[in-house]
Amino acid sequence: MTGLFSEVFLSALLFGAVTAAIPLLLAGLGEQMSEKAGVLNIGIEGMMLAGAYLGFVGAFYSGSLWLGFLTGAAGGVAVALVMALLCVRIGLNQIVIGIALTLGLEGLTALLHHFQFSRSYPRLPAADATVIPLLSDIPVIGPAFFKQHLIVYLAVALVFGMGYVYRRTQLGLNLQAAGDKPAALDVAGIDVVRTRTIAVLTTGALAGLGGAYLANVGAGLFIPFITNGAGFLGIVLAMLARGRPIWVLFGALLFGICLSLTTAMQVAGINIPTDIIQMLPFLAVMIMLVLFGRRASLPAALGIPYERGAR
Amino acid sequence: MSIDTAPTVSATALDATSGAATRHDILHRLLMTLGPILAALVIAGCILLAVGVDPLAYYGYVLEKGLFSPLGIQQTLTRMAPLLFLAAGLIVAFRAGMWNLGGDGQFLLGAVTAAASAPVFIQIMPSWLALICSFLIAMVVAMIWSLVPALLRAYQGVNEIITTLMMTFLGTSLANVLVKLVFRDPGTTVPQTRTLPVEDRLPRLFETTITSGLLLGLAAIIIVHLVMTRTAFGLKLRIVGANPRAAVHSGLGVPGLTIAVFAISAGLAGLAGAVDIIGVQGNVRADWNPAYGLAVIPAVFLARMNGFAAIGFVFLLSVLSIGGESAARRLGVPNHFTLVLVSIVLIVLALAEYFDHRYSQSRRA
């Protein structure tokens, strides 16, 4: 018990929190873009799994983490392409296809893992961190926030990048219009289907990257069902954030701390069943919803396929 | 705020079939269901070939163990019982335009309360009464679990997709905590609840191993279908689903109806858990989560929230899952392949419906 609030413990806790938060952050940012454009992307869990599997395969056979991230993102995009084709292009029900894709990729990645890795369970070497001088010397916070893999900094930078895109660029406005009033966007001469497709494919890339991070940096290996609901958490984060990327970051950190607490408490030898600690982040969100719920501002056309001329 | 509920409106058209067109209609429906399933089997077969498994042998086992062998078909029909209850609950919610995606949490809590209460009740009352009481308590617990999302949606307009997903994660963990800490059977080393003796479970049908829960499930989904399509209450719920604003203006008490929808939907999910435990499993093991809900959601959509069509889709899901489990054991393919198969079937069915719709529209035009 004495070690509970020691510096080592706290910095390990925070380090774990950041590691756990990054996949959620990427998934949340991706889902946010889809939802902004009017596509409720329930297949994001499947996209993350595709990214986790292909990201691990890429990194394992090439020996390069960056190539792993690339193949992971490509895997997410591949699944997103199916989603875009079925739900944006021809307008099938987004919930049916989303759930079907998630189920299918859960099965497919577990199947491939079984035939490929289930005897050896190969691991990747620990990812090397990019140390930011001076800042990383701050006790407790330093190692957690400034001794991470380069991709962590890029993910955080992406938060601000996306904020800029949404507020300051034509694309950001188009995305918002595609979600709020697609007919108006169409009248303005901009292709709704193309705008939404861009959003869904971006979601796929980000979710795939998140999955690849989860497998390659977070765990160092791929196991079936490795995402364990991270995609669904991404959906929740995106809905809670009300279109603002910075809130996805805060939400992801909150979940990350709770997830990291689970491991940390076990290491510290505190005897609370993990199930109780696992409930913490969800409990926190429910309390937040009860207190500050009010009307969440979701895009008006969320979930409705766009069909030109339909009333 | 509310998400597309267009299928709710079109679904009612299905119920009105006139005499002459009926036979052609049924044939057409059958073709539009079996054709895509066949196509899906071929696609999934290619995946099997790719991993070096003979697809014909695999499907042979699926059909034999899921459909044609006496034991297999009995297992399939038994598996249908909880799925039918879940589907019934989803039909109510989806027709009323509410996305209850928390079925798995409600299911598990219902299962755990039924498993905990049934062995206690049978000691103090006749077993038929004990079973009814366990069913009721499972239903009530699941209803309570849906209360927070229901209230938030009814009075604060908080999106129920988030809240029900949150509550399902919470419910899954809570069910585990309950099994491990509160209702744990002291007589075993594995964490599980006390086992309900086989003779006290739901009776089996005739001389078979089929649980009588199947009849309860069928009754539940047919009643739900009739209530939703033939009664004033059902009409009110469908109006709320089709256009909540119009519902307010036509004087319906939307918040009250919203809470009712959540209660019915969650109650049925809780009953699904109870029927699986009291009828089949007998106890809940720690970390048991069959996650039926996720596969039933798309099936209910494809059935266009029509109760009778949903029975067909639930049957199909059961054949695939029971047959897939045996085939996987025999051929050394992990059971996960069933997920792939179900997913491809769902996608191809959705696609087929789209093209069929397009075709009939272009003929009419």
TrEMBL record, chain A:
CC terms in the record's Gene Ontology section: plasma membrane
InterPro entries reported in the protein's UniProt record: ABC_transp_permease (IPR001851)
Gene Ontology MF annotations: transmembrane transporter activity
Membrane-spanning parts: 6-27, 39-61, 67-88, 95-115, 150-166, 198-215, 221-240, 247-270, 276-293
Membrane topology reported for the UniProt record: Multi-pass membrane protein
Entry keyword Cell membrane: yes
Cellular location(s): Cell membrane
Pfam short name (any one): BPD_transp_2
Keywords (A to Z) from UniProt: Cell membrane, Membrane, Transmembrane, Transmembrane helix
Full protein name: ABC transporter permease
Organism listed in the record: Mesorhizobium kowhaii
From TrEMBL, chain B:
GO cellular component: plasma membrane
Record's keyword annotation contains Transmembrane: yes
Pfam families: BPD_transp_2
Bilayer topology: Multi-pass membrane protein
CDD domains: TM_PBP1_transp_TpRbsC_like
Transmembrane annotation, as ranges: 37-59, 80-99, 105-122, 129-155, 161-183, 204-228, 259-280, 292-317, 337-355
Keyword field: Cell membrane, Membrane, Transmembrane, Transmembrane helix
Single Gene Ontology MF annotation: transmembrane transporter activity
Cellular compartment(s): Cell membrane
Classification via InterPro entries: ABC_transp_permease
Listed name of the protein: ABC transporter permease
Source organism: Mesorhizobium kowhaii
